[in-house]
Write a structure and sequence with these properties.
Length: 216
């Protein structure tokens, strides 16, 4: 599959993307995960991105496009990919179209996960993420907790709250989403590529996406 996952912070993009990779070996490409790994490594890209990320702002489009041009050419993308958190602005979406055209790749469709704001706030304050950059399993202390001692069920590493999970950063991320990312719903809607899903249970969302994939 070659799909884009759109949705506000905490809508469940990462959770759904991870479940979808089990469907046909398509790879999850999360720009947030790539950036967090770069911040941890203290690479030049990580150093540039850190300030934006910690306050919940978007990293500049040019940096993201440079990163994605390289990533989409890696061999593991040939089987398919799930773009999680990218594109996030109209300029990124326009650049992505050109990039995919150059590489002869056609997207299947764009998934929009619709979740009420109150649910999002609750999910983000209760999320825990595996600290191991090769795992990054997503947990939730209410709906899907890690082990009782707070370690990851998959790899045993500690689970943590992300640096952008302060109340201030969460509210700035939601504002940024409304101003810069939500216009993509209309952008892809006008192109007839958008599929809206109410993100109630992630398993249900995954079955619905698989259903649409079968019928396209
Ligand atoms: P990124 O990592 O992409 O963060 P985000 O979009 O804010 O999304 P999240 O990862 O917070 O949430 P999610 O929708 O994946 O939800 P999750 O599955 O974890 O980006 C971080 C930062 O990087 C950005 O702020 C920006 O600075 C930068 N960045 C990244 N991409 C960029 C780009 N393209 N351009 C510019 N800057 C960029 O679920 C959340 C919680 O809810 C979890 O605890 C989960 O267990 C729980 N949950 C999920 N689904 C359900 C469900 N159905 N029922 C109950 N609980 C659920």
């Amino acid at each position: 599959m070659k799909i884009i996952l759109l949705g506000a912070p905490g809508a469940g993009k990462g959770t759904v993307a991870k479940l979808l990779t089990e469907h046909d070996g398509s790879v999850q490409i999360s720009t947030g995960d790539i950036l967090r790994a770069a911040v941890k490594e203290e690479s030049p890209m990580g150093k540039e991105a850190k300030g934006y990320m910690d306050r919940g702002d978007l990293v500049p489009d040019a940096l993201i496009m440079q990163m994605m041009e390289v990533r989409l050419q890696q061999p593991d993308c040939r089987k398919g990919f799930i773009l999680d958190g990218f594109p996030r602005t109209i300029p990124q979406a326009e650049e992505l179209e050109k990039l995919l055209m150059r590489q002869g790749i056609r997207l299947d469709f764009v998934v929009n996960l619709e979740v009420p704001r109150a649910v999002i706030l609750d999910r983000l304050t209760t999320r825990r993420t595996c600290a191991n950059p090769d795992c990054q399993e997503i947990y939730n202390i209410k709906s899907n907790p890690p082990k009782a001692d707070g370690t990851c069920i998959k790899c045993g590493s500690p689970t943590i709250q992300r640096a952008d999970e302060t109340e201030e950063a969460i509210s700035f991320r939601l504002e940024t989403y409304m101003a810069k990312t939500a216009p993509l719903i209309d952008f892809y809607g006008k192109k007839g590529m958008l599929k809206n899903f109410e993100s109630v249970s992630s398993q249900e969302t995954v079955s619905n996406i698989k259903g649409v994939l079968k019928s396209t």
